[in-house]
Amino acid sequence: SETVERHEFGAEVGRLLDLVVHALYSDREIFLRELVANAADAMDRRRFEALTSAASALPPDAKVRIAPDKAARTLTVSDAGIGMSKEDLAQNLGTIARSGTRAFSQSLDAAKAEDRPSLIGQFGVGFYSAFMVADRVSVTSRRAGADEAWTWGSDGQGSYTLEASERPEPGTTIVLHLKADADEYLETYRLDHLVRKWADFITVPIAIVQDGKEESANQGTALWRKPKSEITPEQYEEFYRSVGMNFDKPWATLHWRAEGQLEFSALLFVPGMKPFQPIENERQSKVRLHVRRMFITDEAELLPTWLRFVQGVVDTEDLPLNVSREMLQSTPALARIRRAVTGRVLSELTTRAKDAEGFQGFWENFGPVLKEGIYEDHERRAEIAPVLRFRSSAVDSWTGLSDYVARMKDGQEAIYYLVSDDAEALKASPQLEGFRDRGLEVLLLSDHVDAFWPESLSRFEDKPLRSITQGGLDLSKFASEAGEAEGPEGIDALVAAIKAALADEVSDVRVTDRLVGSAVVLSAGTGGPDLQMQRLLRRAGR
Ligand code: ADP
């Protein structure tokens, strides 16, 4: 007889389960979306893996099956996907592989009630949401390519069991023993409604099984393939929500079809909200690549990293269905698609930037990411620069480089900027005194990327960008409101004395016209890194 192994959950899982079950109670219906999405992903992965490995191909009639059993009070979700080995079960369902509970619970506390469900998706705790409706869950799985099957079981109370099991085909079967108050999930009409609501855009077939009869539940409409005129705003929004597990409204919806040299359909969204997981930590675009409707991968990097906030689908005819990972990296068709999609997104941003008010929300959410494009993408640099927005010493609203240039004083040759970590401190910085006094505008930069991109851009409309903390700026040709004061008597002696006293600390001490109210200011050398860059280098220990 087989032995049953008992294991404790990883330390964070217990707390996470508690949070998921209690904090998200009112949204518990989303458990079905989570389980169906996992099942569909597993089938996509099996299809993809079968192309390049010995894993057996996905059977043509493979489905996700959702089967309620009123007598047993169970709900079963099964798939013919890639499956999980014993180790996979322990790792995926017994620990929290990715972001920990702490980050999750902090975000959960901070989030508004209506935003909470999207946290589940974003933090990858999807499977555990099963415990919102079930007091016991068993998962029987057989990894494609393996003969043995294993069953994982838990009541969500601190431990789980693993035992050898059987499953005639690869895939995963999840049995939920429903809680006393979760009867509704035994009703076919309720399940049907949920699948339509959450999973209609999943292209893997989903069936609801009752009394041995199977009813197809999703239409698998590849919405992106339909003409725009046949799609309602609500359908776009629903799709947006399902594709990225989003709960907000998209700020921009881009839907187009390229024909001729290059054939693809794209349906892309710029989110209306910042994701809960800081996008700064992500690196890659997750836009999904489909070939003739079939999902291939979300790791094709269809957009550059500095557009990684864009979500959606690109579906092409120009690649074979059995495209491999190696091929994805080298095929010229994909490179052309990337270029076309990137250009289209940028032109949308350029157009929308003309509406200052409408653009502000986007900029505050994703502006710092876009700025990375200036130093990462020299081909696109010139197209990105006009879209950038800044705080400035001269205006209260966001402003762009073109507007800055239009406001430049006669004789002003450079675009001035000041970088610091602290937006508030910037406004009060003594570095600004001489510029304010002469009516010279200074861009105030406080995003962490701001230390890096101005140097890469170097010029805009032929005007060099100059950090005002760098030495060698001569303001004397601009009339000062405070009046040009001659250095007081004895200033030369004072400068010499300070220079002697600080000989080991600074390379020079000079009289400056950059100050009005303050007595001294630190300045960087003429050619080298500006003050913010020096601070960063010091922090990095260089
Ligand atoms: P996420 O899906 O966000 O990674 P989950 O908690 O939903 O988080 O699932 C954890 C992991 O368990 C998944 O990443 C996947 O590797 C595995 N998994 C879950 N369900 C299935 C399934 N039906 N078939 C195969 N693997 C699965």
From TrEMBL:
Residues 1-325 are annotated as: A. HAMAP family: HSP90. It comes from Methylobacterium trifolii. Keywords: ATP-binding, Chaperone, Cytoplasm, Nucleotide-binding, Stress response. Homodimer. It is found in: Cytoplasm. The keyword DNA-binding does not apply. InterPro entries: HATPase_C_sf, HATPase_dom, Heat_shock_protein_90_CS, HSP90_C, Hsp90_fam, Hsp90_N, Ribosomal_Su5_D2-typ_SF. This is Chaperone protein HtpG. Gene3D superfamilies: 3.30.230.80, 3.40.50.11260, Heat shock protein 90, C-terminal domain, Histidine kinase-like ATPase, C-terminal domain. Molecular chaperone. Has ATPase activity. Residues 27-182 form the Histidine kinase/HSP90-like ATPase domain. The gene is htpG. Belongs to the heat shock protein 90 family. Its main location: cytoplasm. It comes from the Bacteria. Pfam families: HATPase_c_3, HSP90. SMART domains: HATPase_c (SM00387).
